[in-house]
Structures are given as structure tokens and as C-alpha cells.
Amino acid sequence: MMQHTYDSLPGKPISLWLDTTPQTNFPSLADNLYVDVAIVGGGIVGLTAAALLKEQGKTVAVLEAKRIVEGVSGNTTAKITSLHTLIYAYLIQHFGKEKAQIYANANETAIQQIANFVQDKQIACEFRRTAAYTYAESDEEVDKIHDEVEAALKLGLPASFTEETPLPFPVKAAVRFDNQAQFHPRQYLLALARDIPGDGSHVFENTQVLDVSDDEPCVVTTNRGTIHAAAVIVASHFPFNDKVLYATRLKPHRSYVLAARLAEPVPQGMFITTDSSHTMRHHSGSDGEFLLVGGEGHVPGQDGDTIERYQRVEQWAREHFNVKSIVYRWSTQDNRSLDRLPYVGRYSPVSHHVYVAAGFGGWGMTNSMVAGMLLRDLILERENPWAEVYDPNRINLKSVPEFAKQSAQVAKHFVGDRLTVTDTVERGEGKILNTEDGVVAVYMAEDGSLSALSPACTHLGCFVQWNSAEKSWDCPCHGSRFATDGTVIHGPALKNLEKVNNSFIEG
Ligand SMILES: Cc1cc2nc3c(=O)[nH]c(=O)nc-3n(C[C@H](O)[C@H](O)[C@H](O)COP(=O)(O)OP(=O)(O)OC[C@H]3O[C@@H](n4cnc5c(N)ncnc54)[C@H](O)[C@@H]3O)c2cc1C
């Protein structure tokens, strides 16, 4: 395998979406104010909910800790499909046909609602209808394809069985869904965001929400002031104000994406393997045609060298396509729920006015629209047929073993990581060091300067681990991520890693 360091990895280290759109510049919250609905987080969930609620005459305030659409939604692969790898046979088996039907209907409705937004608002975002495929790489997986096609057809989904795909290599079999879609997620979301301010509604950036009270009105405390709101939606990706153990019901999963130019036609469509180990899609914009290739998923902060993960995605891409060059590389993470259904609805069983949307398991393009439509209806006190299936407070005994596994993983990282410490650090590298003053997360910059931090994640105290490919400290328990100076990059953590005196470390 090719040897790479951080600097020699191919491609610009930014998503194609972020590199081809302007940075936003919405104001920060300056005055205390009242809105009907305060929305925490300016990703696809928050902006979609805001757009839908404003359409119904509600005043909204989107409160974004950093800049909007720079989190997961600015780093996704943006396949808009109801074909979520293999899900319908599983849903029918575990929840019955009626609930599987609801999930199917909700996600197909979402594709159409995104298409309606694009058309009604005249959004130039490379939105195009295309087919989605989940394909089997081995004979053993062909039965899974048959089962999924059969389940999907029972639910009236646009599914078919095929052994032919537009990919330039043979597959054993595939589920094909027609009339799915893809887009440029930032072009789409920045257009939604532009329409939000005005008539009592707002988008605030660099405004971090610190606390939310479930009162009448709700009090939303930020680092810039206070907002009062009749209702609050927590759309912070991982619920930031975790009081009812979302930490044990969500598992972060990080993966790696390359945007490549090919020396052959880029296959049209969206593709994923049955085990989600690799995903691909076509993208064409004013900047030409690209193949996006993603893979190498793992729990952030766990399972080895992240530089090698980029290398393996590149190697896989070169083995399967005639790659001319790699233009971009990036990575991001999504959270999986225990039973594969997202959590959308009232935040806790005792919540009155606080709502949540989380746990999209890598399928947040359609599920964010489902979330937006469902939360809009709950807030407007309208019936919505999807509510029970997505209810975050559902009791599902089938997910108990997963709950136990996730809790055990978290417990392991509370205790075990304290023992895996080392004692040397190279330039451009971070390491957990065992010093006389205790365990310290140390980063040595290229110029030899050191930053020393407490390795205890400020969310719930697990020890962070070094991520060599992104130069960050990642928490293996709930996926919080921190820059080399300790600043929060990704929640649920709200506070930066604590700085410690580094005078005891030899430079
Ligand atoms: C590699 C990868 C590829 C993917 N590809 C696809 C795909 O092809 N199709 C698909 O359907 N899904 C895909 N997904 C999943 C999808 O991208 C996500 O589910 C979705 O983008 C999540 O959106 P979000 O709004 O919940 O999160 P985000 O976009 O991360 O938005 C949350 C926002 O909340 C802000 N925030 C956090 N805490 C606070 C706070 N305290 N105060 C204020 N703001 C706060 C953050 O800064 C962030 O901007 C993919 C995921 C990954 C990891």
C-alpha cells in the first residue's frame, strides 16, 4: 500500500461542496428576543424545519454555534433516496409491514418535497433525478438483494432486481430504485437559509446554545444572549443537551470521501455495497464531472490510523475505476440509532415544548425532510402518520442488546483508555502522554510548539484519541471532536478541552 503522511494525502482537504460555495455571514444574536420556534443547529435538519415552519407563518430563529452547513451536511455525499442500503426486509421483519410502509412513505414523500422546494424556490443546486443501487459483491449476498427487492415491492417502492448497473465492473446482483435524486447540498441549503430572515425570523451564526428550558415560554440560553420561544427544536446533530441518555442510544460512525476525476465516463447514479463499506455517486457542476467515493467507516476515536483509511479508499477507487486524479478529500460522521429508525419527536417522555431530530444512520437527506415535516406538524398540533414510528421515546425491546453493547463500549472507554498511554510525540502529531502530573493530550506543531490539554472529553469525560488524518482529538464514546488547541469542532461537547500547563514536557 502507498505510504502517506497527512500532507502527502492526495486532494485538497475540504469537501467539494464547501470549496465551491461562498462562506456565509449571518449575524450573531445581539438582542434578547422572542420567536415561535427556536432551532438549535444550522444543518439540513435545522434549516429544513425552519423553512417549513416559516412557510406556515411561524417566526423562527436558527441558532448555529459556528457557520451554517459546515457540519455533517456540508460534508455529506447527498444521495437523496429512500433506498437506505438494505432496510425494508429488516423493517418488515422487526416492526411489521405497517411500520415499514410508514418509513417507506415518509422517505418517498421527502424526496418529492425536496424536489418541490427546488422547483418552487428555483434553487440552482444540480438537483437531478437518478437511480439508486445497493449491490452485492459476492454470491452469498445475492439472497439479501432478492429479499430487499421483494420487501420493497410489497411496500410499493420503485424497486427492481438487476444484475446490470452503470458501474464499470460486474456486480453479483443489485436492488435498483428509480426516480431517486442527488444534489449539491450546500447550494440547496444556502438557498433555504437565504429565505429565512425577515418578518420576525432569523438565522444567527457564531451563537452557541448552552441550555434550553422546557417552560412557557422556553428559555434558550446562548453565549450571546437569551431567546424565548414557544417551542424549541434540538437539531444539533448529536443532541447537545443530553439529559435522557441519547448518549447511550446513539452511536457515531465516521467515514471518508474522495472526489476523483476519471479517465473514463463517470457512471451515472448512486451506489452502495450491501454492507455500506463503499459508496459512490456521480456529480457534475460548473467545475466538471466527479466521482465521489466513500468508505472505511468506523467509530471516531477508535480503530486505528485515519490516514490509512484515506489510503484504503483511494486504493479501492483505483482498483475499481480509471482514476485520473483525486481533487478533494474529506471525512465526517453520522449517528446511528439502536434500531435503525431515527429519533424525531418530543425530546423526552416529559417534554412539552422541546423536540429533537437525530440518529439518521447515514441517511439524513430524506430523513431530515421527514423530521422537518413531522416536527412542523407536532408543533402546529396536526396529526402526522409518521409520529409513532419516529418517536424518540418508543420502547423497543429489540434494541436492548444494542443498548447494552453501546453502553459497554462507552464504559470501556471511560476506564480502558486511561491505560493506553505512550511517551513520545513527533512534529505534526498528537499523543496521549503519561506524565508525572497525570495523563495529558499533547500536540506538537510543525514549528515544535506544544499544546497540552486534558484528554477528558468535556461531554461525559471519556478520553479523546488522536486523529492523524484530520489533526483532531476525537472522543470514542459519543463522537465529540476537538481541534489541536482544544476548541470544540463537533458536539455533543459544548466546552473546549481544558488547557494544562506544558512546562513539564521536554520539547
Ligand atoms: C460520509 C457521510 C456521507 C453521507 N452521505 C449521505 C447520503 O448520501 N445521503 C443521505 O441521505 N445521508 C447521508 N449522510 C448523512 C447525512 O449527511 C446526515 O444525516 C445529515 O447531514 C445530518 O444533518 P444534521 O442537520 O443533523 O447535522 P449537521 O449538518 O452537523 O448540523 C448540526 C449543526 O448544529 C450545530 N450545533 C451543534 N451544537 C450546537 C449548539 N450547542 N448550539 C448551536 N449550534 C450547534 C453544528 O455546528 C452543526 O452546524 C452521510 C453521512 C456521512 C457521515
The number of strands is 24
Q: Give the mean pLDDT.
A: 92
The CATH topology of the domain at 21-76 and 187-248 and 340-398 corresponds to FAD/NAD(P)-binding domain
Give me the Rg, rounded.
22 Å
Structural write-up:
- The protein is α+β, with helices and mostly antiparallel strands and 507 residues long.
- Among the domains are: 21-76 and 187-248 and 340-398, 3-Layer(bba) Sandwich (FAD/NAD(P)-binding domain), CATH 3.50.50; 399-507, Rieske [2Fe-2S] iron-sulphur domain (Rieske Iron-sulfur Protein), CATH 2.102.10.10.
- Helix content is 24%, strand content 29%.
- The protein has ten helices and 24 strands.
- Strands 3, 4, 5, 6, 11, 12, 13, 14 and 15 form a nine-stranded mixed β-sheet that branches.
- The chain is globular and about 65 Å long.
- The chain starts with 15 loop residues before the first helix and ends in a 17-residue tail after the last strand.
- The model has no long low-confidence stretch (mean pLDDT 92).
- Bound molecules: flavin-adenine dinucleotide.
- Flavin-adenine dinucleotide binds at residues 40-46, 63-66, 71-73, 76-79, 208-209, 235-237, 240, 255, 257, 294, 332-334, 360, 362-366, 368, 491, 494.
